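Quick one:
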Amino acid sequence: MRRLLKFLHTFAACGMIGALLAYALVLTYAPQDSAQSYADLRTTIAALCNYMLLPSMAVALITGLLAMVAHKPFLDQRWVWLKVLLGLSVFEGTLGVVGSKAGAAVGLSAKIAAGEPMAEALAQTIAHEWTALTVILTLTLANIALGVWRPRLVRRGEVT
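Output:
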């Protein structure tokens, strides 16, 4: 059971990193010069989030928590609890980004409909998206590094 959970957890982490990097590539290279190309960009990002990022994140979170239950010594390891906190931060941040995409698209559409120049509104929306994407990617990579490195994380003066 532990090996299956480890495999699924690792596979899901790979899916998350892949989805986040694909998201970044779409933001970087997708044409955004018209309202239609922006709509296409949003459709592509929604597909990445719905079919790759969110399922991978759910599997990683669930298998990580189940691994703690299946392997009791994990419950006494501080690095595991730090991974849990980072994992929950990734979960919350990812849901926030996915949810805000819809709001940003609606807001941008309203600005375009009002006759506001698209380039300015688009640049602001994408700048916020890059910030959130960078934070989530950093937290995900930190979580993976903790799982590989597995530091002791002992208090000063504490002997193990």
